[in-house]
Amino acid sequence: MRKSVLFIMLMLGVSMAAQAQKFAFIDTEYILEAIPAYKQASEQMDASAQKWQSEIEAVAKTAEELYKDYQAKMSSLSESQRKQKEDAIITKEKEVNELKRAYFGPEGELYKMREKLLTPINNAIYEAVKALAEQNGYSAVVDRASASSVIFASPRIDISNEVLAKLGYSN
Question: Using an 8 Å Cβ cutoff, are 136 and 24 in contact?
Answer without folding.
Answer: yes
